[in-house]
Specification:
The structure is a homohexamer.
Chain A (H helix, E strand, L loop, with lengths): L6 H15 L5 H6 L5 E8 L3 E2 L3 H11 L4 E4 L6 E2 L4 E8 H31 L6 E3 L9 H10 L12 E4 L1 H7 L7 H11 L5 E6 L5 H6 L4 E5 L3 H11 L4 E5 L7 H5 L5 E3 L2 H4 L6 E5 L2
Parallel strand pairs in A: 6-11, 7-8, 8-9, 9-10, 10-11
Antiparallel strand pairs in A: 1-5, 1-12, 2-4, 3-5
Chain lengths: ~290, ~290, ~290, ~290, ~290, ~290
């Protein structure tokens, strides 16, 4: 069950992209293609993957020409093999050619994220560990890229700096300048100001930092750049008093090992910032 | 010599990203970091590359807090090795921590593009071939990503569907439906309507299509998915009557071979849609 | 310690209001007041209260005329008595008169909210109960109105439908249509999809609904329209396994009694939707 | 006969409010409510009043889900008693629950204004006095709040600083600094520059200021903070040479007395800045 | 004494125009002009006229590059002869060349309007008649074009459909369909609903329509397409009971004759919709 | 065959104009015209011309009231004589009267441009010369005004500073400051940086400047303010090595003579900045 981006948010992003791709119209189609020419085209996967971008692709077509007919055979979150027909589009050739690149740019990138996420998720299968995203998303596309992570079976971390607290090493370095207040005290004081709905997570770099954080009753502890052995020790020490997240040095190869330590969450920046667009194209049917 | 994005365009994109990353403020910094705390931080490359994003990084900082001081030691288009200090930021800790992720997201992605482009450009060195980008850019970021390609030593293709004509296979398939008009005639007629400043480029899939296109006097011919041998034959046949672009199946490994055929342009979609963000971080200095 | 709205958000709201209040300029001042006329004015409280709106007031003045000088004697969250001088403004008469109404409209409304909130907070003093706001805010002004609640000593509930789950009676009525799935099961399943940072709160109308919710391990239970006696019973039954919120029928008179039951949170819609603007005016000093 | 806000203006405000209330979607409904679930709900008045907000309520529903069916039984300007069914909404449960709070926030506030206005209007019944609003409206909502005043039987004053002149005490204090020019002369000169369609109104604080203003031939004189006796004297002295407005210290209790003095207009800031949202809720029908 | 457009309105229009004129930068200057090159240029009138656009010109320069220095020797509303130096600009060559066309487009068009208006105003000199504009302005530029009319010595009519009533022939034709209500009755009823600040003007085509309109007590009567003789008769019949406006068939040649009939207002659509941009250029000084 | 502006661009401009023309509604129609009143009106040309603005006129009507029916008898680019019926509109009187002025303002101005362009085009008939527009367009309306030029049979020059290079006298004056680099060298270097799709045009003032430019292989040479004799000499000297554009001092009278010199392009600023709106009105049919 996916929480999907809302239609107005999708349309806003697609309109910006359509405007960007043809600020004063598609001069090629208008100069060469007769207005009455029709097209029947197929969205085809040129490699295997997980789909994400059904609504965005459709919006790019319909916002260009509301009379186009788009039908998806595979749906968001669905897997497909190379060569699979994902969708068909029918209608005005000018409309389809105008929207094609924008529609593909979205669906290729989002499906790339979903596909990569699915690999990480598969590698952690059978453990309690969730694969979660980070704030390392493309500026302007966070809403869609987080959705792509969900389509790939991953989970989302906080959306932004506004909806959850994550105290990181840089914050802690600043807090440490004040020798008169303990981290525990500062956490308790902040908690007394923050909304009760705010999740409070703290990053630690060493096992000996755990107790100060646990005393304050945080919701998640992030073990950053821990060895597998230390992760295991951290999980044992925390003993389910809060959630445990692992981050840093997470590769597809190491996922299974990290997941086996018993951590609840593994955050992977690469899901959104090291992703290759999936090869998906639009082929003419007739 | 680079043509740089203009300040208002950069600020618009950065403001959207800042808003996206903290729709109602950075609750972590505001809850934990005293307003008077200062930070001195360094932008550090964790791997070698080519820089792109100086102005965007600076804008993210200054739009958050105009009193921050940002100084770059390496400039856009400059190369650096792993561990290099790229820039320093000084000022309010709250301001720097609020802007950090947005600033990094831009500079990591853009430097990733510049760095990848530089590899393609190096592989074509000593030939007449330009490495050029495509319209496969991230929706909303085309302006910046094209600039990143230039920073990497690459060149830009047309900006959008509005500023140059590129007749592709799908267009030609539709034009072919009309048996009564030759491609040459259609090209000549379109030319008579288009602005004289409009570059006219046509894609061909086979050598035997060349003459019809050449008769119409186009500006560039795109040889799509040609073997190295056919590229060479195409270049010879065209004989400098127009520019020649190669595209399709272009990998870093094949670049040198393709470039050696004498083509003027090699377009590489992967420059912008298959790119890994470069690993660049912000370290505290004190 | 208050988390303050960020400057760009404030400026966006103020610019809209300034535009609304004079779409084609302030014709009175421009027709009558010489451009060189200066004004020295004082923001004066005509009744006692708690201040909120310092930055908004200042932004209204400075966005109209950056050369105006605004100085606040009382700061956000500070209390004042009737007749108190809150701030002074100095500079161009045209600028001050142009911005006056917009500046006052904001500060009167926000201080009205802060002042009312402070009354509820005082009534709950000495108990563990936080006074929290709701989503019954003025469309477009949620960011500022939530801040006003904090200035009055209150706390915020979730910001929006996006950042926390609150299952209310209407949701439960729909879930009850499916006789094959228990509420506990549905809560557990939803939790498995939601981000780990998402606070999960469920509203109950009767004590006998508590156990199904508690079994699922939610973060907060909302006791809606409970009698004082039932609130006390609910708190006892929940026994600190999660937070307890009281809502419905909350008046200033009943606050102390409700707070004494041991609930953690009392949400009060009236903080933002039944509020009278505080009487604050701008008086000429000379 | 009401002049209604235009549809695009309504939709712009509603879209901003919907975005504010769920920047990345309604996670509760999406996590718990099946997409196919239907709802039949009723908008019910929990207290008596005058309706305002029919189009805004409908827009909130339809902009969320165009397939929802909204039907109003009472129309804008209509009165209703506590318990009255005002409207019904039918359709997708997810859609209705997503829009509910925004729709209610608007209709509660606007009906609160209409209801309060109707009380002032009733108190002045049988006299020539119009109850008029002021510029003390909620930033961003002036268009709707002025409409709410009309729904309650009140009238509007000028819309903004741009469409009519109102010389107030602060302006006059500045004009008085120039001993060489009389107020009459200044009014005549300004009139010679202002558009002929511009209404010219001047505030006076004392009876002895009337003649200077009357000599210039203004359209309305505002008697600010006058005693009932002085109001009566002012009306007599002005003798229908222009309209007369009373303002300052206007309470519901004093309205009838003020109206009986023969003034044409009574402006009441409280109509929009001291208003309690009316208690209106959305109940499930089945 | 001019009421000037406010700075934020000017900047919004200028930014749109700058963006329109170089959506991805000024490639000529960036490719050819060294960043350190300086320019000293002069705004020169190539024909005589009346200036309008000082602030817009300056904004175009400063929004492009805040370090440019702009100094005007002639000010808005000032007259100049052909060859006059109107202003100087100094600073970065890239900045000046980037802004030049946008700055000129505004100042040429606005000065064209001011200059044309001044001719109509001169032709009516010595009479009571004001030359006023209409709503026949360029879409998006009404604020500036109305200001240009004022700079030329003309006056403004209503700003828009929202701030004054003008019942025209088309309205009257529809009202005439209802035989049961007289125009006088309809005017009186509308007046009872409209704000007291709303100017009420009615167009008549024949002298025999005057009495019905006068009975209702309107503010202005518009005599449309009247002969000079009928205008004179109309003015006599109305006898100062309201303002009189003449419109239709107004040419520069006929102005003096029309003005001599005693009408208060002559509205001239040509001021804004038949205007030639004034020839003003930017010359290099060194 | 015309390249038409896209629907979203048209709608954005029309919505701004509708908002500008009635920021808070059309008070005349709402106060006087019953909501159920219907109108059948005709768009009538009061003088001969060439139509432009079909889609803009229709959008103004339909964005105001989607139930209006608009039918055009003449289409964009079509010629008509004075008195011709161009279109009919049917539907709600309030809707038509609300949109009328905005719809007319667009169609009058655009048809004015198309009509003027057609005169220039006719004067150059039988020669190879294209009549082309310039960047002297109304700020904000370039997209539509360029389309109007095409409707009149003219052609477009570059859209903006971003899509083609045009080195003008001011640029050359700056380049001349550097005695160490020849213009030819600078042109070749710039070409090596610019996209291959970028058209490169250089303005010359004297015949002896031609060779330096021709050596660099530019795409077009602009002969600015040349006598007819020099134009002829320039065309001969250039000898088809690139396109030749004439500009400066171009009047309708001189067009034929200029065109006869063999230039490829004649750019005429007056097409868009010296244009009179065509007289087109909306008449009631019944």
């Amino acid at each position: 069950m996916f929480i999907k981006p809302e239609q107005p948010s999708i349309e806003r992003l697609v309109l910006l992209a359509l405007e960007e791709d043809a600020p004063w119209g598609d001069i090629t189609s208008q100069a060469f293609i007769p207005p009455e020419a029709q097209l029947h085209a197929q969205l085809v996967a040129r490699e295997a993957g997980v789909l994400c971008g059904e609504d965005v692709f459709t919006a790019a077509m319909l916002l260009t020409d509301p009379s186009l007919a788009v039908e998806f055979a595979v749906h968001d979150g669905g897997t497909f093999s190379g060569g699979a027909a994902l969708a068909t589009v029918k209608g005005s050739a000018r409309g389809i050619l105008r929207a094609e690149r924008v529609a593909l740019n979205f669906v290729q990138r989002l499906s790339g994220i979903a596909t990569l996420t699915a690999k990480y998720v598969a590698a952690a299968a059978g453990t309690r560990a969730r694969i979660v995203d980070t704030r390392k998303t493309t500026p302007g596309l966070r809403l869609l890229e987080r959705y792509a992570v969900r389509c790939g079976g991953g989970h989302n971390h906080r959306y932004s700096l506004s909806d959850a607290v994550l105290l990181k090493d840089n914050h802690l370095a600043i807090l440490n300048r004040d020798p008169n207040r303990s981290l525990t005290a500062m956490l308790l004081e902040a908690r007394s100001h923050l909304p009760h709905t705010t999740h409070l997570e703290v990053e630690v770099d060493r096992l000996d930092q755990l107790d100060a954080v646990l005393s304050a009753g945080v919701d998640t502890i992030l073990l950053d750049n821990f060895s597998t052995q230390d992760l295991r020790a951290g999980v044992a020490h925390i003993a389910a008093r809060c959630l445990v997240e692992a981050s840093g040095g997470v590769t597809l190869e190491r996922i299974s090992e990290i997941a086996s330590t018993g951590v609840d969450l593994i955050s992977v920046g690469a899901l959104t910032h090291g992703v290759r667009s999936l090869d998906i194209g639009l082929d003419l049917l007739e």
